[in-house]
Amino acid sequence: MRIDIHGITDAASRSIAQVMLQNRLTTGVLFFIGIAAACLSIGGEGRLSVLAGAVASLLSALIAGRRMKGWNDGLAGFNAVLVGCAAFTFLNCGAAVWVTLLAASLLTLPLKLLCDRMFRTVGISSLTLPFILATWGLLIISETWNPATLYIPENISEAPVVTLPSLLAAWMKGLSQVFLTDSWVTGCIFAVGLFAASRRAALWALAGSAIGMAIATAFNIPWLQISEGLWGFSPALTAIAVGDTFRTDTHKPLKWTILTVFAIILAVVVQLFIQPIFEKSSLPILTLPFCMATWIVVASFRLYSERERQR
């Protein structure tokens, strides 16, 4: 069987870009460079196994799902690349983990088809829900069958002193944490990649990360969590989705600005409510606040618009 190297490379780049809802080859390449920088510990702590897992998961999903609708646009692979990043963020590198990782990556394909069909009734995609479900399954299996695979950081990080540089670093890490990486340099590269695809998406992503940090600070969330970008990535993704990707009425910018800010705030509120539940379990929250906030806002707006047209 002939393998289309060029096609797979193009689809892989677009898959990486689609994690932030962009369909541009240049953006995907820049995002990959950003992930590599983080894994090489440039601008933060990193692990090369995360990069290896992301690449393996992405390629396995693309090769297996090349007949899927949206394959050329990267829609068949973006969940898999996130699964790869998550696997070696939470697990040690080992033969057993590799097997379950590849299985989880392939699982994102039928999960996406199933979830998209469920959400089609309200006119929205499943976003990163297949990644969330596949990663949870991977972690549950690993913890049940071989708890030794769970990754435990050797050094417990200390929160940096609150200064202008540390605030800026936390702001950028809000973007880098979309790929579960802890690097302000990566966040800067991601911002450039977003600007290459859409200036509106880039500005909203930066605004989302900043608003998420501000709200988390107002609710006395530990500065260590904020400084690592853990309260910026879901608001940033939500801002891109509502403020750019699913934006429909271009003639009313003020309305969409208000709607997007509301969605960003909702993403943080959702995280505030559900995080205590997840802290009692062994599962990470991942991008669930982004998914929930985006679904609620976009679906509600579309239902409202449909009723207005019927009057």
Description:
With 311 residues, the protein is mostly helical. The protein has 13 helices and no strands. It starts with a helix and ends with a helix. The mean pLDDT is 91.
Give the arrangement of secondary structure elements.
Elements: H1 5-18, H2 25-39, H3 48-64, H4 78-90, H5 95-119, H6 129-145, H7 164-176, H8 184-197, H9 199-218, H10 223-227, H11 233-245, H12 253-279, H13 288-310
Helix pairs in contact: 1-2, 1-3, 2-8, 3-4, 3-5, 4-5, 4-6, 5-6, 7-8, 7-9, 7-11, 8-9, 9-11, 9-12, 11-12, 11-13, 12-13
Structural class: mainly alpha
Q: What's the SSE pattern?
A: HHHHHHHHHHHHH
Morphology call: globular
Largest sheet: none
- Strand tally is 0
Unreliable sequence segments: none
What is the quaternary state of this protein?
Answer: single chain
Count of alpha and pi helical runs: 13
- Mean pLDDT, nearest integer? 91
First CA to last CA: what distance? Answer: 56 Å
Percent in strands: under 5%
Return Rg in Å. 19 Å
Short description:
The chain is mainly alpha-helical and 311 residues long. The chain has helices spanning 5-18, 25-39, 48-64, 78-90, 95-119, 129-145, 164-176, 184-197, 199-218, 223-227, 233-245, 253-279, 288-310. The protein is built from 13 helices and no strands.
Characteristic terms for this protein:
single chain; 311 residues; mainly alpha; globular
